[in-house]
Every structure is written in C-alpha cells, then in structure tokens.
C-alpha cells in the first residue's frame, strides 16, 4: 500500500534476526535505513562467498538486505548521538529498531525514553535473546538448543540436530513483524507510540504447542522421531528408484484409497485399517511401504497418489524449488548498478502491492555507509568538509 511508502524505519541492526525483519518491511515499501558502526559494521557482511570481489559485500549479507539504505554512525561518541537525534527528528522516523544488548540502550542513547522525548509517537522495537532484563548473548543454534527445538529434531535413535533454517532468528522476525503492525494500528487509532520488546527465546518456545501441552498436562514424553509423525501413520520419507518422496496419510479414508491400489494391496490388513493400528506398528509398516516404493520412480508414485488425493511430494533440492512454477513467478531480484550483478532473492511470504508495482525488484543491498553522503549531506545539511571531518574522527 502507498501508506507504507510514507513510513521511515531506522534500524541499528546486525546478524539475521533484525535484518530479516527490516527486509520484510522493505518489501512493504517502507523506507528502511540500517545503521552500522563505522569500524566494525555488520559481521554478516564478511560471511560467505566474496561474489563481488570487494570488502563487506559477501554473499551471506546479500540475502536479506536488499531494498535498504545504509549509514555508518558511532553512537558511542557524543557527536554521534547528536547526529542520531537529528536523524530521528529530521527524517521523522516512525519505527526505530535495534538488536543491541539492553545494557547498551542508555549508553548509546537509543533507549525508549530518550527517543520518545524526541518523537512522542515513535514505535520502538528492541529484539533480544532472552528479554530486556537479560544481557546474555544469543545465537540462533543456542536458542534452538535451549528452546527444545533441537531436542525435537533428528532421528529417534540419533543425536539432536540443528534445523535446516534459523527458525529462532526468522521466527522472531515474523513475530516482531506482527507486533509492529499492531503498534502501527494503535498509533493510527490513538496517536500513541509503543515500546516493543521481542525475545528470541519466547518466540522459539511459542512454536512448541503440542510438545508443551502434552508434556506439561499429561506427562507424555515428546522427543525427536526422525521423519515419522507422533500420531499419524504412514507419514514419512520413502525411497524410490530415483530419489525420495514424502507421503502423508492423514486419515483412514486416505489409507483405504492407498491400499486399494494394486501396488499396495499387500498392506490391506485388518490390523492396519485404523490409524491406531498403523501407528502401533509404525516401524514395520514403514519398512514394508519402503520395499514397495523402491520399485517405482518418484514421478510414478506422485501421479498415483495425486490421482487418489493422498498428499505426496518429491523431496526437492533447492535448485528444484527455485524452478517450481509456483516459486519461479514469485522470486524477487536486485541488480547492482556498479557491477551489473543480478541476484535472485527468496519470494516473500505474501506478495505485496509494492513488490507487484516494482516488478518484484528491490534495490541492491547497500554497501557499507553507501548513503552517508545522501542522508547526512542532503537531509541533515552537512557539507562535504563536515563529512570529511566526521569520517576522519571515526564518527561516521
């Protein structure tokens, strides 16, 4: 919506959890400005392949920072804090966000009280590992371990495993996105700003809906179980003659449809008619299914199961996902005006009006301090001599 284009986000961000959130806001069309320390910057700029053959623009950083502008500013200095306050007031910042440790809020002049005094209707967001009262450092795998996500991932007789995506990072971003939208609605209705504290630990634990209820209420043991389901069978990965498929039989009707097919008639046993019987013999049943599926290609099985409305999917590689017609038409891109490099970006969770209007293209991820001249010079009125001095003094 055009309303989002009027909103300015200033984000003191690094790593993944906050940059992914502001990337989502940029996809809505908001004016997102990322702040970084003029020496250290965002460590993620140095991670991954150096695809542009230049410093601080490595591939890992490129994935979630398109559509933004970038400033450098030393908030540990008095003059840096003065410039920061000018940014809040002059740019009319609507949302300020940070994933600094809480002990740094007042020291850097970015605490809610200070910023609210500058702009009373500001929406302030602090993303932390364990809440505003904790200064414990948090990385995604640590959150996975502590929240129980890792205990629930992996083979039943194997070690706990890290998830294939950083859910504590990206899940917290999504939760914070919803909180920001609520705060924007509140401001529109009342004129009041908000302070939002989003903790990665709280976000991560909130995904454990079934495990916590069954454990806390009924003393059940819930742990990792590999590719099978705790309550439904057959639900698992099965080998084919040319790969793997995942089959999910969610009810007895689907099971009856499956075993009515010639290829699976040998499994039409009375003890398997009900889900309780199948889940009670899950290991043997899965082995028997696997012996059958190995004789057919993934494509043959997909055609068969689709014809009888039993959910099935090939286990796709990332290149195959990118080529999926449903994905291909929703992929985003960004083109570097300097090198001409074009990067492919993951599709948004929902296609926004802004992305549709821009033909699903965002501005290229900004270089380190790329917009210092534009914003400090044009918006705040600093001369070239001023900017030269500020850079020499380590302020920007």
Molecular structure report:
Helix 2 packs across helix 8 (167-190) and helix 7 (140-147) crosses helix 9 (200-206). The chain is elongated and about 85 Å long. The protein has 19 helices and twelve strands. By secondary structure, the protein is an alpha/beta fold. Strand 10 (332-335) and strand 11 (342-345) form a beta hairpin. The chain has a six-stranded parallel β-sheet with strand order 3-2-1-4-5-6, sandwiched between helices. The protein has two domains: 2-206 and 330-392, Rossmann fold; 235-317, formyl-coa transferase, domain 3 (2-Layer Sandwich).
In short:
With 396 residues, the chain is α/β, with parallel strands linked by helices.
| Coarse structural class | alpha/beta
Count helical runs: 19
User: What is the distance, rounded to the nearest whole angstrom, between the alpha carbons of the first and last residues?
Assistant: 33 Å
> What's the average pLDDT?
97
Strand order of the largest sheet: 3-2-1-4-5-6
CATH homologous superfamily grouping of the largest domain: Crotonobetainyl-coa:carnitine coa-transferase, domain 1
What is the CATH topology descriptor of the largest domain?
Answer: Rossmann fold
Oligomerization state: single chain
Shape: elongated
Unreliable runs: none
